[in-house]
Amino acid sequence: MREVLLLAIIGWIVLQAFRRPWIGILGWTWMSIMNPHQLTWALRSMPFAAAIGGATLVGLLMTKDRRDYSLNRENILLMLLMVWMCITLPFSIHFSDSYELWKRVMKIDLMILVAMVLLHSKRHMLLLVWTLVISIGFFGVKGGAFTVATGGGYRVWGPENTYIEGNNEVALAIVIVIPLMRFLQLQMQARWAKATMSVCMLLMAMAALGSHSRGALLAIVAMALVLWWRGKNRLVGAIVMVVVGCTLLSLMPQEWWERMSTIKTYDADASAMGRINAWVMALNLAKARFFGGGFMVWTPEVFAMYAPDPLDVHAAHSIYFMVLGEQGFVGLLLFLLLFTMVWFSAGALRTQARGKPETQWLSDLGSMLQVSLAGYAVGGAFLSLSYWDLPYNLLVLAVVGRRWLARKEWLREKDEPVIYWPAFLKKRFEKKKVVPLP
Hints:
Blueprint: H1 2-19, H2 21-34, H3 48-62, H4 73-88, H5 95-118, H6 122-150, H7 167-187, H8 191-210, H9 214-230, H10 234-249, H11 254-260, H12 270-288, H13 300-306, H14 319-352, H15 360-379, H16 389-415, E1 419-421, E2 434-436
Parallel strand pairs: 1-2
Helix pairs in contact: 1-2, 1-3, 2-3, 2-5, 2-6, 4-5, 4-14, 5-16, 6-7, 6-8, 6-16, 7-8, 7-9, 7-15, 9-10, 9-15, 12-14, 14-15, 14-16, 15-16
């Protein structure tokens, strides 16, 4: 039954993508973030994302809807990062394996660029946020309920055969999405809707804790600090956070507390020391090879050449060291600049749209995007999710939001009458749009 339903939904998305390619973008995002076909038995290997992506690209050429090809610092940096990855590809240590991952990353980044071309309205942005929330919220809410029901005795895992299959990866995805849920809650009017979203956010937090991921715990703390600092009443905010935090943590078993305690004693934890060994390997590799080692360098052969302990082979477990080892110092610089610019764009939305009824929602979006980015920056320091779609969708929301705000301001100025007054009357009519005579 679920296979038939999924085929019907995907068929509708493909058909709509030819006429309204922005629907194709939402469908692509849903497929790449949630991977709903992995929840079926017969459709797991079907190339649904490729079908939706192809239909969207055709629709991009055919549609009469508005398209925005304007350049900004974010899409320029993303394109430069893509070009750099194309340059480094021929210098890959394991070219065949690297080439396969390179194709996947190029597809993801291409669709992110297409999303910035096609999405332009408030409706588009809200639907994109809902798509991200539903895609990850499905696993997070279910995982949170599972954690509560089992007393945290078992770990929460992500969907098989996806970027977020591991407990650490799904935990970071859940952490990133919680602020987006808060943004949607701020736009709701009905009390039952707000209460439902509050319950869902608490269950998401429980799922992140139930993953037993130390990186997720640090990411939650970082986001809580940002939210507390931004709050209007910090004392009340601190009390609420402490009460909620203590309540959630009280549900976790002794095993969880023992694992979290290794954050302080990392030098005695084999897993933590393995990560540090991988980080040093990435640093040595980047020093020795200007173009990095290409994708898929986390192998015994590469560790034998560059790691302090060649026998302790680990994945990168860090978005920063992953990019450093695979793309070199230039790639890491572009990666850091890209998300730094996204942070500033989200901050601009938070401040410039604040206090105006018609744009307050955009200020809320900018604020919550920064909270999500804080979680990604901290939690990502211990997880290998450098190229996954979700953080780049935050980029899309920031860029489209700034364009929407700029267009709103331009239209408002265009519609307002321009009144010319002598300079000595400027203060008297300061509430009007005044251009004093020379």
